[in-house]
């Protein structure tokens, strides 16, 4: 059975929409672990649009499973990863204008630079995974790069019209088989949902699935009703004791808290 890496990026997306402190991916990572996550994955993007530096530092200190850091293969991110020492680094392509990681890394189109960066990370004891499309040429280049792992991009399968899904799935099956023959270990992810995950989970040889957006979406669906219920309860039965700072409220004529004694 493949293990599950839960990608928490979009919890941070909600937080950053208000530049506030909630939801906090660091505290919610604990709930993901309680739910059975085998690992926590976050993408520290160069534009810091969701996950922040403080998140990865606190996650490193608190995650009890494994922290997989997704990042671009830049010198700045290399230095961050080496200082952080996550359980794994997954190298992904990054373009500022994209909504999410759009394609796999073009390992075949890159030269010595990428290979050197992979060696540097692995030399610091951090296993490197390359997020690539399940194409023979890319997988060969991954082997040549010295990386130990690949993460097969499942986006083409996830986005395929229903009639073309079997073909896209067959490419993933073949890609996984080929990667393993080349001595690479195989993860997979992107765009997987509660509706399409099972066929990928059943592919022999895939060790971990990285899944984010659909889990965050489901969390809202299963949690929203309770969250509203809790707010309704507070509104219908507010606490009557003075709260911290009630002194200020007491100066406000007409405020029902005026009737209460301030804390002694
Ligand atoms: N794997 C990689 C390399 C990714 O970049 C992402 C998206 O951040 C995922 C997996 C998870 O994709 P999704 O959010 O669609 O489940």
Describe the structure.
The N and C termini lie far apart (60 Å). Helix content is 45%, strand content 15%. An eight-stranded parallel beta barrel has the order 1-2-3-4-5-6-7-8, surrounded by six helices. The longest helix has 24 residues, at 213-236. With 264 residues, the protein is of the alpha/beta class. α4 (75-84) links the parallel β3 (67-71) and β4. The chain has one domain (3-249): Aldolase class I (TIM Barrel, Alpha-Beta Barrel), CATH 3.20.20.70. The chain binds pyridoxine-5'-phosphate.
Q: What's the layout of helices and strands?
A:
Elements: E1 3-7, H1 9-18, H2 25-34, E2 39-43, H3 53-62, E3 67-71, H4 75-84, E4 88-91, H5 112-123, E5 128-132, H6 136-145, E6 149-153, H7 155-159, H8 165-181, E7 185-189, H9 197-201, E8 206-211, H10 213-236, H11 246-250
Parallel strand pairs: 1-2, 1-8, 2-3, 3-4, 4-5, 5-6, 6-7, 7-8
Helix pairs in contact: 2-3
Bound molecules: pyridoxine-5'-phosphate (PXP).
């Amino acid at each position: 059975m493949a293990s599950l890496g839960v990608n928490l990026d979009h919890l941070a997306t909600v937080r950053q929409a208000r530049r506030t402190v909630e939801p906090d991916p660091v505290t919610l990572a604990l709930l993901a672990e309680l739910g059975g996550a085998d690992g926590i994955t976050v993408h520290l993007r160069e534009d810091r649009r969701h996950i922040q530096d403080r998140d990865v530092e606190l996650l490193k200190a608190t995650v009890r499973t494994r922290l997989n850091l997704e990042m671009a293969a830049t010198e700045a991110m290399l230095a961050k990863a080496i200082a952080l020492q996550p359980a794994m680094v997954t190298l992904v392509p990054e373009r500022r204008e994209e909504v999410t990681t759009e394609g796999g890394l073009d390992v075949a189109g890159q030269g010595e630079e990428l290979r050197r960066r992979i060696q540097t990370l692995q030399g610091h004891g951090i296993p490197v995974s390359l997020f690539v499309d399940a194409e023979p040429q890319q997988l060969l280049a991954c082997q040549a790069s010295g990386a130990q792992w690949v993460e097969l991009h499942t986006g083409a399968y996830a986005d395929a019209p229903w009639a073309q899904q079997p073909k896209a799935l067959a490419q993933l099956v073949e890609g996984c088989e080929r990667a393993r023959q080349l001595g690479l270990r195989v993860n997979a992810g992107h765009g997987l949902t509660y509706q399409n995950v099972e066929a990928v989970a059943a592919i022999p040889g895939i060790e971990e699935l990285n899944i984010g957006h659909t889990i965050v979406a489901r969390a809202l669906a299963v949690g929203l009703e309770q969250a509203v219920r809790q707010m309704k309860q507070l509104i219908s039965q507010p606490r009557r004791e003075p709260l911290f700072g009630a002194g200020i409220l007491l100066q406000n004529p007409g405020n029902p808290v005026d009737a209460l004694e301030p804390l002694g």
